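Lecture notes, part 5. Sequence design as translation. It can be helpful to think of inverse folding as translation between two languages: the language of shapes and the language of residues. The source text, in structure tokens, appears below.
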């Protein structure tokens, strides 16, 4: 029953509860009894037992938004464009967009389970993509692939691939069972071990995992990865966020540990040293308190050490210890949040607090300092994805962090301690709601040093709701009486992958996210994606339906007027209950028209068949949403560091470079990042919408090497290659 529970409740681990009376009921797996240490108590609200309001009413406060005619819709072209298949067998499929063959267009890498080939979709330049994974040597059919990242690790001008892997659902084995030298252990290593593939520049990749990583291959369950030059030597390093083996992805128990994360430092010769613990970024202690505010401890029977939220006596099928005393990481992100020109690290954990590590590295010594608590961004939640962008137009980078969303406020709070935010949100140290962290600039804090100033403004951020599919939480009658009704952006639904991008090239950042946990019909999180159009001043409008960006199959968008008598959301499948199981999300200009497109993946797995009252296996569709375009001007910047030219300056991909682009009185800011959100990677090209401006007044580039560069009077509507200047 443990395995069945894991299969049906993977990731957020909140059980499929209350959506249907005839849903199979998960069975909790007993763990050893924890001890409780006394600390200052935290007030707990009184919890009344009741059921959520039925899903029958549309919030009366929802008003008609902007007319549909001003929205140019996207079109999902995946069934036609992905000629060799647009469905995957994988609970956690990646979406990595990069130009693997340097032919000037963006290609796509999507991962699958073991015994299935990963896809490397080569962009044919005619609106179609061809799978070349076998010829390129990136099919990895033995590996149980998950998140991936593409970056140039040897500064030869070609992007290499790091492909993460996860444990096998249902085998009852954690990573320590793969550390032996016997045949079974070696086989398991091949399935759950990460891979490093170097791009040979001729359309093929070579697996260099053994020579590059030696005995430090990551066997823990990888979710997401990111590349950055953490020590400023001009060579990209790799950080891998690990979650936990799927068979122990539970949240109904006080013990909800994860796997330590890893950091591979580039030795500049295609070998790497794993330094996460020494650098201070392998993870952090789990936080879990009982209803009186006391830490819940478990005692190690061998050492007598106590761990909060981690039961060291839990063993796998071969008698090996399960997990580590650390959080379950879903997404990782490098960006310079304190403006000191080095990459800081953000880590989203599911059922735990996020980590924020300030980069305090010096020549010869990589060091990160945890600052999340000092920054006030350390609430426990089901954190899953990141998006970085200047949503309010004040020339600094803000952060959107996805969480379980407002769904759980329709149900009674959870009384039993566990990693589920339905429990932790009862207290001031937990939340299920998304973060929208406004960047208010850096400051010096006594005893801590320089920290970024980020304030969660999601509750007060205005979002004009869609009259066609508003969030359920906007109907106050649906909110459980023990919860407050969420407001603003906090009222919106569950999310995994997320991205900021300027969908209409008006110069303002928009945001899209998708995600659900569980299949349609039996999910506690019926979310089908949200597309919010920004006004550049800090407010948004929900245009998901009118932009035709629902993460739902077979939607009928023919009638999009809520006042039209023929509008029928059930018949047209314009309802969150038809959602798929969204995971990864990435943006790129896939057809070279200057307008950004989106790629989203969905989990495979069992889908509830109401006719047979049974679970039926289904593949997960990949969506390729092509932007309908428009008349606004644009410019895309392709930055090249000098390391690939003369061995000096910044890394070849220019990862970590920051660009300020000015047209008239309007200045935009973006950073080059390799690693974007959950399981995914956006294109590293920087795309700027220019509105009606036919030229750019100034482009200022702050290179990771410390060099600055200014270009003036640049024509719009082009892909501009900018090469780092020499000294």
């Amino acid at each position: 029953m443990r395995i069945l529970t894991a299969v049906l409740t993977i990731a957020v681990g909140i059980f499929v509860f209350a959506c249907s009376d005839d849903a199979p009921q998960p069975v909790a797996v007993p763990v050893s009894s924890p001890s409780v240490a006394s600390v200052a108590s935290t007030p707990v609200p009184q919890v009344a037992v009741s059921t959520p309001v039925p899903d029958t009413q549309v919030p009366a406060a929802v008003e008609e938004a902007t007319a549909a005619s001003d929205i140019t819709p996207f079109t999902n072209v995946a069934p036609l464009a992905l000629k060799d298949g647009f469905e995957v067998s994988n609970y956690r499929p990646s979406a990595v967009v990069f130009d693997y063959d340097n032919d000037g267009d963006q290609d796509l890498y999507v991962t699958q389970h073991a015994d299935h080939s990963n896809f490397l979709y080569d962009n044919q330049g005619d609106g179609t993509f061809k799978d070349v994974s076998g010829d390129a040597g990136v099919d990895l059919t033995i590996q149980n692939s998950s998140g991936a990242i593409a970056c140039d690790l040897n500064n030869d001008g070609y992007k290499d691939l790091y492909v993460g892997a996860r444990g096998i659902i249902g085998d009852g084995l954690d990573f320590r069972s793969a550390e032996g030298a016997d045949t079974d252990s070696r086989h398991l290593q091949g399935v759950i071990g990460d891979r490093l593939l170097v791009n040979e520049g001729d359309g093929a990749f070579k697996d260099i995992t053994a020579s590059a990583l030696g005995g430090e291959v990551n066997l823990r369950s990888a979710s997401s990865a990111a590349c950055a030059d953490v020590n400023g030597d001009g060579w990209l390093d790799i950080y891998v966020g690990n979650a936990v083996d799927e068979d122990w992805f539970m949240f109904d128990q006080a013990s909800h540990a994860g796997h330590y994360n890893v950091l591979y430092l580039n030795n500049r010769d295609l070998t790497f040293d794993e330094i996460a613990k020494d650098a201070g970024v392998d993870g952090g202690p789990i936080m879990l308190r009982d209803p009186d505010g006391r830490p819940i401890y478990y005692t190690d029977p061998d050492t007598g050490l106590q761990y909060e939220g981690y039961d060291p006596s839990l063993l796998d099928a071969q008698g090996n210890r399960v997990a580590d005393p650390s959080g379950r990481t879903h997404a990782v992100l490098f960006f310079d949040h304190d403006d000191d020109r080095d990459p800081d690290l953000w880590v989203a954990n599911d059922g735990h607090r996020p980590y924020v590590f300030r980069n305090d590295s010096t020549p010869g010594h990589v060091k990160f300092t945890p600052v999340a608590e000092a920054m006030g961004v350390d609430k426990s939640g089901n954190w899953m994805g990141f998006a970085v962008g200047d949503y309010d137009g004040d020339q600094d980078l803000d952060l959107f962090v996805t969480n379980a969303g407002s769904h759980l406020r329709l149900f009674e709070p959870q009384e039993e301690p566990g990693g589920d935010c339905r429990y932790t949100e009862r207290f001031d140290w937990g939340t299920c709601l998304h973060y929208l962290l406004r960047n208010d600039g850096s400051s010096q804090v006594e005893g801590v040093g320089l920290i970024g100033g980020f304030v969660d403004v999601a509750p007060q951020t205005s979002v004009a709701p869609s009259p066609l599919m508003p969030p359920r939480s906007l109907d106050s009658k649906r909110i459980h009486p023990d919860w407050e009704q969420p407001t603003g952006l906090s009222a919106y639904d569950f999310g995994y992958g997320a991205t900021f991008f300027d969908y209409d090239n008006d110069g303002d950042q928009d945001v899209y996210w998708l995600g659900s946990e569980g299949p349609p019909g039996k999910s506690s999180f019926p979310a089908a994606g949200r597309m919010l159009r920004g006004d550049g001043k800090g407010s948004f409008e929900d245009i998901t339906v009118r932009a035709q960006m629902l993460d739902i199959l077979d939607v009928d968008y023919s009638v999009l007027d809520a006042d039209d008598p023929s509008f029928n959301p059930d018949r047209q499948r314009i309802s969150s209950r038809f959602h798929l199981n969204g995971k990864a999300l990435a943006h790129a200009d896939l057809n070279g028209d200057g307008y950004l497109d989106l790629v989203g993946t969905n989990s495979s797995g069992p889908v509830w068949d109401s006719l047979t009252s049974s679970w039926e296996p289904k593949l997960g569709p990949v969506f390729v949403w092509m932007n309908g375009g428009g008349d606004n001007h644009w410019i895309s910047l392709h930055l090249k560091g000098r390391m690939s030219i003369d061995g000096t300056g910044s890394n070849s991909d220019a990862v970590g470079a920051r660009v300020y682009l000015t047209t008239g009185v309007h200045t935009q800011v973006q950073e080059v990042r390799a690693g974007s959100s959950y399981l995914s990677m956006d294109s590293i090209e920087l795309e700027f919408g220019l509105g009606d401006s036919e030229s750019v007044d100034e482009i200022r580039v702050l290179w990771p090497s410390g060099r600055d560069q200014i270009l003036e009077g640049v024509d719009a509507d082009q892909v501009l290659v900018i090469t780092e200047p020499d000294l």
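The translated text above is only one of many valid answers, since several sequences can fold into similar shapes. The chain is about 5% helix and 30% strand.
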